[in-house]
Design a protein that fits this description.
single chain, Leucine Aminopeptidase, subunit E, domain 1, Aminopeptidase, 8-stranded mixed beta sheet, 15 helices, 20 strands, binds ligand BES, binds manganese (II) ion, binds zinc ion
Length: 500
């Protein structure tokens, strides 16, 4: 999508292809949301009854188109449902609005322009609408040779107060966030043939430099020389060698330093512990964590909070070959700990361990890692909820709260100390797998061993939400979702405000 224009004029006078309004599902049918008044007036107060006759209920993801037949400049009204909406001003309400804006934007693909007359009573509400629009108007058709339907092109956000400075600032932030989420989606959606570690590192470098970030890339030679046994071990079976990308954002007068670490397995075949074909099919999404931290850092550089941020993206391709690491191999991680690799498919924790240890050299106040780490997290929380694990229960709650305000579903999981012994190895310091009970927690406990001493750390297991196998909904397309980008930006904003 090209650009968002703000207008305090009535949507009925705008020369656009459609005007979007919101409807909630009330006790007796659909109820118009704030913003729809001028449109209802143009319909002489008949809009609710018209929608009722068209079968509208106002439930989430419902999109009903009503021809305007000259009652206003635009030829069609698009009514989008928000469900039985939560109380105004709550994160749940804003998320309902965000999803509705996304559903409308998706329904308008192939349309050039639209005005969104949804509730924008506060700057945060306006930002939610803009995020929903940008995320809903996403399409990935770089690999289609025919004429793909183009996404909605131009959007006008209408509302009485939208010209206020606070709204403009919130919209600018929402545009940076929306662009970042879509960028992460593009990376996840790209075929692994094209997005291998070096290619991913190269685009990250290009974009990082353009955003005035400091960029460092360790290639396979420097990784081997530096003793990054996890990245080398996982990457050694592939013709596409590993990379560790470090991006740093350093504003003046930053009081705190946040490190972000992302799992960047550009394809996870499982290695010699090969995955069955069905589980392998979506494994191009296994760099979703790295995509989120790189994209979020680019957005942060644009939003420019007074917090130093360093992002590590640990990139490797996990393949089986004559050079691949074997189950029972022992590798030495960055920093010297040894790991017995009992299952080469538990590779994410190996590349993350190197990056976590390395991040200690930056003396961070907080580390957040993001990874499509375990199928067990999907079993526990389903496909739409990410797990939060931490060495600090209070931090876990604050991250949960940040995620909720950002509109991402996450839930705290424990790291029970008694599970740690399942990772005991007969030959090395630790093994990379335990048993299947509480697999997400065991993976978290493994990572915890590599977190620099005394540093608060949160681990986000995004294995479920990173990739949407099913039909699109709200602002979420099929395929890569860009999950965790919004939460990471929110966490850094919260740190800047002294809230986290
Ligand atoms: N990348 C997978 C986890 C995953 C599963 C991500 C489903 C997205 C959707 C990870 O590397 C993996 O293979 N984990 C194993 C760990 C096991 C061998 C201990 C798993 O979950 O089966
Ligand atoms: Mn794996
Ligand atoms: Zn993996």
């Amino acid at each position: 999508m090209s650009a968002i224009t703000l207008s305090s004029a009535s949507p009925t006078g705008l020369k656009v292809d459609a005007v979007v309004i919101g409807i909630a599902s009330g006790d007796d049918g659909p109820a118009l949301l704030a913003g729809a008044e001028p449109v209802d007036k143009a319909f002489k107060g008949t809009l609710t009854e018209t929608l009722r006759q068209l079968g509208a209920s106002g439930k989430a993801d419902e999109v009903i188109k009503v021809p305007a037949l000259g009652k206003m400049k635009a030829p069609v009204v698009v009514a989008v449902g928000v469900g039985s909406s939560a109380a105004d001003g709550t994160p749940a309400h804003r998320e309902a609005i965000r999803r509705a804006a996304g559903a409308a934007a998706r329904a308008l693909s192939g349309t050039k322009s639209a005005a969104f007359a949804l509730p924008v009573g506060s700057a945060e509400d306006a930002a939610a609408v803009v995020e929903g629009v940008l995320l809903g108007a996403y399409s990935f058709d770089a690999y289609k040779s025919g004429d793909a339907t183009p996404p909605l092109e131009a959007v006008t956000l209408v509302g009485a107060g939208v010209k206020a400075k606070a709204v403009k600032d919130a919209v600018t932030r929402a545009e940076a966030v929306g662009t970042a989420v879509n960028r992460a989606r593009d990376w996840v959606n790209m075929p692994p043939r094209d997005l291998f570690p070096k290619a991913f590192a190269d685009t990250s470098t290009k974009l990082g430099k353009a955003a005035k970030l400091n960029v460092e890339v360790l290639d396979e030679k420097s990784l081997a020389k530096g003793g990054y046994g996890g990245l080398i071990g996982v990457g050694q079976g592939s013709a596409n060698p590993p990379r560790l990308v470090r991006l740093s954002y350093r504003p003046t007068r930053a009081k705190k330093h946040v490190v972000l670490v992302g799992k960047g397995i550009t394809f996870d075949s499982g290695g010699l512990s090969l995955k069955p074909s069905d589980s392998m099919a979506t494994m191009k999404c296994d760099m979703g964590g790295a995509a989120a931290v790189v994209a979020a850092t680019l957005a942060i550089a644009e939003i420019a909070p007074k917090v130093a941020v360093t992002a590590y993206a640990a990139m490797a391709e996990n393949m089986p070959s004559g050079d691949a690491q074997r189950p029972s191999d022992v590798i030495t991680m960055y920093g010297g700990k040894t790991v017995e690799v009992l299952n080469t498919d538990a590779e994410g924790r190996l590349v993350l361990a190197d990056a976590l240890v390395r991040s200690g050299e930056d003396e961070p106040d907080l580390i957040v890692d993001v990874a499509t780490l375990t199928g067990a997290a999907v079993v526990a929380l389903g496909p739409r909820v990410s797990g939060i694990m931490s060495n600090d229960d209070d931090l876990s709650e604050r991250v949960h709260d940040a995620a909720e305000r950002a509109g991402e579903q996450m839930w705290p999981l424990p790291l029970p100390p008694e599970l740690r012994e399942k990772l005991d190895s007969a030959v090395a310091d630790i093994a990379n797998i335990g048993d299947r009970n509480g697999g997400a927690l065991q993976a978290g406990l493994f990572l915890k061993e590599f977190v620099p001493e005394g540093v608060p750390w949160a681990h986000l297991d995004i294995a479920g939400p990173a990739f949407n196998d099913s039909a699109p909904y709200g602002y979420t397309p099929k395929g890569g979702t860009g999950t965790a980008v919004r939460t990471l930006v929110q966490i850094v904003d919260d740190v800047a405000e002294g809230r986290l």
